[in-house]
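Z., the sequence and structure:
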Amino acid sequence: MNIKVNGEARTFESELNVTELLKNEAIEMPEMVSVEVNGEIIDREDFDTTVVRENDEVEFLYFMGGGAFGI
């Protein structure tokens, strides 16, 4: 199975769910990552039931806090 993860081609032997993909890609702090499959944000409670299939495009989105510089 061929998919794109964060814009890079990846090959897997079979379909897998989002949770399995996070583990396979060794994502650190997966609880802090949002996942988008084919442009749609996946609810965290659906990670185990959302299957990634041939030619899907997956993005791992990391949200970072920030601040403003004082002048």
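The chain has one domain: 2-62. Strands lie at 2-5, 8-11, 16-17, 33-37, 40-42, 51-52, 57-62.

Let me know what you think.
H.
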